[in-house]
Amino acid sequence: MTEILVLPGHPPVQVTLKRSKSSRRLSLRVAQLNGQVTLSLPKSTRLRVAEAFLNDKADWIRKHLGNAVATRTPVFGDMFPVADELLCLTPAKVRSARINGNDLLLPENPEVLVARLRAFLKARARDRLIAACDFYANRLGLPFSKITLRDTRSRWGSCTTEGNLMFSWRLAMAPRDVLDYVAAHEIAHLREMNHSAKYWAVVDRIHPGYEAPRLWLRANGSTLHQWQL
Description:
Blueprint: E1 3-7, E2 13-20, E3 27-30, E4 37-42, H1 47-56, H2 58-66, E5 79-82, E6 85-92, E7 98-100, E8 103-107, H3 113-140, E9 146-150, E10 157-159, E11 164-168, H4 176-188, H5 197-206, H6 211-224
Parallel strand pairs: 2-4, 6-8, 9-11
Antiparallel strand pairs: 1-2, 3-4, 5-6, 7-8, 10-11
Helix pairs in contact: 3-4, 4-5, 4-6
């Protein structure tokens, strides 16, 4: 049964408790996408301790709730991010999405807009990520096994010990250097399966200047999730 606490105030805030054997302390998370507040805590923590912790962190919680990104469903006329451009979602006599100047042409039926837009982003992400991973893998001198795409919320990419790479297809919406950085980030794990100083040295060697796109993703990554796709 899910435990819920309510932080009093205007408006009151519902907080989901997540008890875990591995938790050693109380920690808060406010999801930027939907404003969901989660309190992780050790299994033995008493409710009054959790309540006191929440009251102490009330200002912090409300500040981060104010930064939550509002979600939206794409409609014709919206300016939609694709790589380094904002393209106008435009109805046209086409079967699948394609770029025409400053327009992203989509089938005229609004009921298929989201599905066609999602398919366009997945195909574009796959092409760009395969090319980027090939490039950085060649630089590193190590091969990867395969690439899969998902719509993940907590991470933009991952790399297994078998060399299997996973990426969020929403990276097709991010600037090109951000997608390249994420590809390099995961390829570097083929050499160092950690985030040590040695690992970041590998990232810097195959993708110099990674700091700027890394900061962009931290600051703006939630905006890629605001679109309901």
